[in-house]
Amino acid sequence: MQRGSMTDREAYPTAWITLAVLVLLYLLWRFALGAPTVSRCWVWEHWHIYCPGCGGTRALMALAQGRVGAALWYHTPVVITLALAAIYLFSQTAWRLRGKRGWVLRYDRRWPMVLVGLFLANCVVRNVLWLGLGVPL
Q1: Distance of CA 133 to CAs 62, 129, 130, Å?
Q2: What DSSP assignment string belongs to 51-100?
Q3: Higher local confidence (pLDDT), 5 or 122
Q4: Is residue 121 a part of any domain in this protein?
């Protein structure tokens, strides 16, 4: 194992802690703050181009409403990331409950770079469609 590389031993609890923090932040936003509107993207407002995260909030809101197709349209990498995280957490939890037997999705140190690549590719495609062909997303 390389120094500094993450394994399932670190990734699994980190994923659960991240999920718990995100749920708490959502509950804070929804109930304590009264669900204020989310501000528009600074990059879009000033430069009129899409940033790698543009559409991510809309995708999350669409998923929360059960509109998977809309979420995929708004920001496909967000849906892929959430699906991968859900499969990872479910398979790791089931594997641990079964005494570490059966199939399990293992963390791979290449995942973060692949996901960053997906977000950047999505950004490039959206901007080519917008700036090159005039197709707003």
Answers
A1: 26, 5, 6
A2: -TTTTHHHHHHHHHTT-HHHHHHHHHHHHHHHHHHHHHHHHHHHHHHTTS
A3: 122
A4: yes
Domain count for the chain: 1
**Which amino acid does the sequence have at 15?**
A
User: What is residue 29's DSSP assignment?
Assistant: I
**Using 50, 70 and 90 to split pLDDT, how confident is the model at 4?**
low
pTM of the model: 0.83
- DSSP state, residue 28: I
Smallest Cα–Cα separation from 136: which of 40, 58, 50?
50
Which two three-digit tokens encode residue 90?
Answer: 């479910």
Q: What contacts 60, CB < 8 A, 6 or more positions away?
A: 71, 78
* 73 in a structural domain: yes
- Residues 32-88: tens digit of each pLDDT: 988 888 778 888 889 989 999 989 988 998 998 999 999 999 999 999 999 999 999
Task: Supply 72's token pair.
Answer: 């995929």
Q: What's the token pair of residue 109?
A: 């140190």
Is residue 115, in this structure, part of any structural domain at all? yes
Report yes or no on 24 lying in a domain. no
Q: Which range of residues forms the domain containing residue 70?
A: 49-133
